[in-house]
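anyone else get weird line breaks when pasting these?? whatever heres mine. first is seq + tokens for prot A
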Amino acid sequence: MRMILPPVRERRQIDRMLSEFFHDPREPLFRRAVVQLCRFYRLPTPRITWFEYLDWGKTAGRTYENGEIHLVHPENWKRGRKYNSERRWINTIYHEMGHYILWADAERKADTFAARMVRGLGSSSVQRAQMAAYGLDRIGSAAVASRRDGRRRRAKPARRKKSAS
């Protein structure tokens, strides 16, 4: 599946703004990141509502058909969660924005969008954390990469023996 993403330069800016917002929750930083992402896709900015927790702490974000997004605020994300890292929170933002941008085949496309948003941003630890979040190991990612490049290993056809007639 081909996916149109903002250039790496813009993705780095968006990622940096989300990271700063996670550490110092000032609303303009988050809004600027979301507006920049929506401007690239020529979409209206979604209405975002912050919560302490969603679905008894099981859900980190939810996107509705009317374009409204409910998210767990970073201050609440940091406490009382098993996986309370900054990367997980930013990945949740990308995932919910993926739902907002790509309505059809929601889960798979949102996961793909979140993974590709951080690809090529620089730090390999970011990519490793992203791959771990989706359960891709080195072998799995190599298989995906080789499949993507069309370098499938095909079994060689068996040679026929010449008949003695």
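and prot B, same format (seq, then tokens)
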Amino acid sequence: MRKFNRFMALSLTVAMAAASFAGCGDKTQDSTTAATTAATTKATDAGTDAGTDSTTTAAATPSGEGEGSVLNIQCWNEEFKSRVTDHYPGYTEVDATHGKIGDVDVVWTITPTKDNAYQNQLDKVLPDNANAAADDKVDIFLMEADYALKYVNNDVSMPVADLGITDADIADQYQYTKDIVTSSDGKLKGLSWQACSAGLIYNRDAAAEVLGTEDPDAVQEFVKDWATFNTTAAKLKDAGYKVVSTVNDTYRVYSNNVSTPWVVDGKITIDANLSQWVTDSKALVDAGETTTFGLWSDEWSAGFYPDGKVFSYFGPAWLINFCMAADAEGSIANSGRWGYTVGPQSFYWGGTWIAAANGTDNPTLVKDIMLTMTTDKAVLKEIVQKDSDCVNCPTLLNELAADSSFASAILGGQNPYAMLAAGAEKVDMSNISAYDQGCNEEFQNAMTNYFDGNASLDEATDNFYKAVVEKYPELTY
């Protein structure tokens, strides 16, 4: 058994100062106190999201003594690994899949998501994790929102309260980021460093030409709700522009604003807002005001350039910064000619959640990683500066909004953080279900046939139901 020493390269004085640095949440309780508390007490108030499993909490001994010598992390790409490598104090990279934190070996198992491979990997290793050999135990695994409840409503994941993480620690995080990973019995089982609130990214030149303004607040009046958005689409078509590249650009905005889950009492339901997406999208396609291209296709991304004649895309900060050809000469992003506004409805897109695996033998280190990466304000600001993530800390985003150095060249000098912070406050994910990924994929696939005239609405709807039931045999419709 070994210890981890988070600040092994620093002097004791500096290490003590760093360990006490205030994060986004109230990070005044050090890991020794928190670990001891987690090992000896359990919160009974429902508001603390306390867990009931005593197996792993008992392992949370002071300063990591008695914990494992290997920290195993399951993920699907390099994103979280790069954040830890670049920003977690004391982490040293050994090679592409190995690192060190003090004398703890860190092993990264990266399984791509294609063909559901990542979830299949989790389903293989998590259920019997408590009985795995010490060096093979999964300690941390990463989740996305579309399937998070599959693991949250399951004893393979550990309540953060069992690690000693309190409500006060994470008070300065957006509520929707907690709702997504809260189990049906009220236990919070993950944390995210990201708040991927999103908006409408519009072509400033097209706005000036057709709408007579490129100012974000003024443009918002032309896209403030779906009825207004659709009226504006007709004006843009007359000038030779598609309002969006494809109907798939708007889907996530509608689906984030449903009033019922995809599945209620085992029965598939189609929310009224999704039915509205179908109605609106069919009208836009029939009028030639958008297309049915797939996201990430060459046809979809043609609008990143002026000749593509696309007025807008919907997306978060990561789409703007990393996916819209900002480094390509002649692109709209490279010229600084995108603008950013709220659009018809607030929504979010993306995000990665850190979860502790039930059976971990490194609860103290897992706790420290979770708190450092999601609540340490200095670390979060570094992530903004280096990685351009929209981070899960309202107070920091508001500070960035008031700092002119965080204006975006891609957005023509516009600072997006006030809008992103306000948007994150409006996101409501109380209607997510464990079936969201499959239902969303099959609904879009089925409705594309309808939009393209290859099926009637009734046929497309029936095909959707059949595809979902084939994927999830336990459901009815």
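btw re prot B: The first helix runs from residue 12 to 19. The CA atoms of residues 200 and 419 lie 11 Å apart.
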